[in-house]
């Protein structure tokens, strides 16, 4: 099983990045990007379409390599991708719902993968996102909003210090957005951290904002690996 941070580290370790740069399809998406999220904190990623919000979340999750810079937990540079993966939960546009399983079976699968079986935690997660009445439904029968609520419920069945959420309000009605806001509030109250990419994140109260437009390269839009501008090289040193 992937090792988790212990409870003390969960309450005290900040997640940060320094001098980050990333290329996508040969294009430098952002460069010289810094961030820092402390326990109980929230960071909202802003910027126009194409500015790299989803790309940055994937970099933070360890799914997309960065061309320059470092990321750290509590000041210690991340060098163990498996342990890093165990310290976070990433909910993106791809909900990773298994259609052949029921709602309860989907959540049980994720709980077993990342944590230990806990029937009460499972029930709490389903209640939080109004899934209890759908527990025995095949996931293939769910609407887009129900599937997204199921994906968000994974956050509660397998606790981790850091939540990375890509447009989590999509396909949610008002009640579900309120449920998400409560879940985020409780997570932060316990010392957890949340990073959200969203055009509107009213469900994140008191979070700091990071405008990715400030880190967009100001010269040519595309470079090959041999043509990376000096600013990116500087960030890597």
Give keywords.
alpha/beta; 237 residues; disordered C terminus; 8 helices; 22% strand; four-stranded antiparallel beta sheet; single chain; globular; five-stranded parallel beta sheet
Give an overview of the whole structure.
- With 237 residues, the protein is an alpha/beta fold.
- The chain has a domain at 97-158.
- It has eight helices and nine strands.
- A five-stranded parallel beta sheet has the order 6-7-8-3-9, sandwiched between helices. A four-stranded antiparallel beta sheet has the order 2-1-4-5, sandwiched between helices.
- Helix 5 (119-128) runs antiparallel to helix 6.
Secondary structure: elements and pairs:
Elements: H1 7-12, E1 15-24, E2 27-37, E3 42-46, H2 53-61, E4 68-73, E5 76-77, H3 81-86, E6 88-91, H4 103-114, H5 119-128, H6 144-157, E7 162-166, H7 174-189, E8 193-197, E9 208-211, H8 230-236
Parallel strand pairs: 3-8, 3-9, 6-7, 7-8
Antiparallel strand pairs: 1-2, 1-4, 4-5
Write a short abstract of this structure.
With about 240 residues, this protein is an alpha/beta fold.
* Structural classification: alpha/beta
Q: How is the largest sheet built, in terms of strand order?
A: 6-7-8-3-9
Radius of gyration, taken over Cα atoms and rounded to an integer in Å = 18 Å
Largest sheet: 5 strands, parallel
Total DSSP E strands: 9
Helix content: 25-40%
Number of helices: 8
Shape: globular
Poorly predicted ranges (pLDDT <50, ≥5 residues)? 1-9, 221-237
Mean pLDDT: 86
Query: What is the succession of H and E elements?
Result: HEEEHEEHEHHHEHEEH
Question: How far apart, in Å, are the first and last alpha carbons?
Answer: 34 Å
Strand content: 15-25%
